[in-house]
Amino acid sequence: MKFWYRTKTRRWHWIARGATSALVAFFCSHCILTCAQNAVVSVFPEKSETGDTFTVKILVSGTQVMPGRVRFTPWQTFIPKENMLRSGGWQRSGNQWVQQYTLIVFDSMRVELPPLYVPTHLGDSLPTNALLLHIFPTPVAADLSDVAPIRDIRREPVYWTDYWPWAAGVLALMALLWLRQRRRKPPVRPVAVVSTVAVDVPLPVPAHQMALQALRQLEEQQLWKKQEADPHFTQISRILRAYLEQRYQFPALESTTREIAEALRRTSLPESLKAPLQNLLQGTDSVKYALSKPTEAVYREALQKARQFVEQTASP
After folding, report:
1. Is 109 helix (H, G, I), strand (E, B) or coil?
2. Is 249 left (phi over 0), alpha (psi -120 to 50) or beta?
3. Contact predicate 70/117, CB 8 Å
4. Which residues contact 52 (CB under 8 A, 6 or more apart)?
5. Where do the H-state alpha helices sit in 80-228?
6. Calpha distance 211→150 (Å, rounded)
7. Cis ω on the peptide bond leading into residue 45 (within 30° of 0)?
């Protein structure tokens, strides 16, 4: 029993010593790697004029793994991020990692920029050194002739690859139009259908028939029994005027009796009927304003004369 206890105790003792040794070795190696890594930032040229570009270079040594992205947050108080014109990726140069940035400043300054922090693969960050940045104002010459000429814009060369997105877009659009045209169904041509259904078109009623019918309806009213002379003779005058307007094509309803007589001279109305018609129209006008009431014979005589005139002048 004692032998078994001693064996188990020694086994746990060796396990504890091994774990402690491994942990110490890990921390020692981490400290060695951390101490061996270094990050340095430099600027070229050391002094620049306002409006001139300058290059910031970051060197990282002591690691085989590419560092992470450097953030310029500590510098944004002096150099906005819009002033960073170009940033390059990490490049291996011997035993170091190199990254370059192109910046520009438009205000003169002499300032010590705080350290930047370079992320590593171990999860921590390497601080760089502080950087002295000296931007002096552009000297102004007393004479304009001494001013240096304006430098031309440095343009990048044009390559065919600059236009391939446009070409790809045009080709894609043409392909879509071709597919749409191919899938489109041919238009259905309308077929003319001839209907054979007979439609009864009412024939126009001749003017003399309309006038005779109106006179017949007026006679059926027998207005003489009611001693209503004004409506009776007014209706006769209106019927005759409407008939003359349709038969001889002139505005008889809007004309006076004298104007109707003048208009009938230019029509084919026989001379023998012009005087009786004028007398009849004048009679209807005078009866409406007469003081004495006409007899029944006068009512019927006016109707008869109007009916005879219509029948005598009816169109064949």
Report:
1. strand
2. left
3. yes
4. 104
5. 164-183, 207-221
6. 103
7. yes
Tokens encoding 31: 């400290």
Q: What is the pLDDT of residues 172-212, one digit of tens each?
A: 999 999 988 888 766 666 666 555 555 555 678 888 889 88
What are the residues whose beta carbons fall under 8 Å from the beta carbon of 273, sequence distance 6 or more?
309, 312, 313
Is the CB of residue 104 less than 8 Å from the CB of residue 53? yes
- The secondary structure of 221-279 as a DSSP string is H-GGGGT-HHHHHHHHHHHHHHHHHHHH-S--TTS-HHHHHHHHTTSS--HHHHHHHHH
Tokens of 94: 């011997």
Phi, psi of 56 (to 5 degrees): -110, 125
Number of Cβ within a 10 Å radius of residue 135: 21
Place of tokens 């006679």: 219
Which element (helix H / strand E) includes 111? strand 109-113
Amino acid (one-letter) located at 39? A
Q: Is the distance from CB of 56 to CB of 101 less than 8 angstroms?
A: yes
Three-state DSSP string of 134-167: EEECCCCCCCHHHCCCCCCCCCCCCCHHHHHHHH
| Among candidate residues 122, 97, 129, 117, the one with its CA nearest the CA of residue 33 | 122
Bridge partners of 93, per DSSP, are 96
Three-state DSSP string of 270-306: CHHHHHHHHHHHHHHHHHHCCCCCCCHHHHHHHHHHH
Helix axes 229-248, 207-221, angle to 10 degrees: 170
Q: What is the DSSP letter of 113?
A: E
Pair of tokens at residue 22? 């491994």
Residue pair 29/115 in contact (Cβ under 8 Å)? The answer is no
pTM score, whole prediction: 0.38
pLDDT tens readout for residues 3-46: 444 555 656 656 666 666 666 555 544 444 444 789 999 999 98
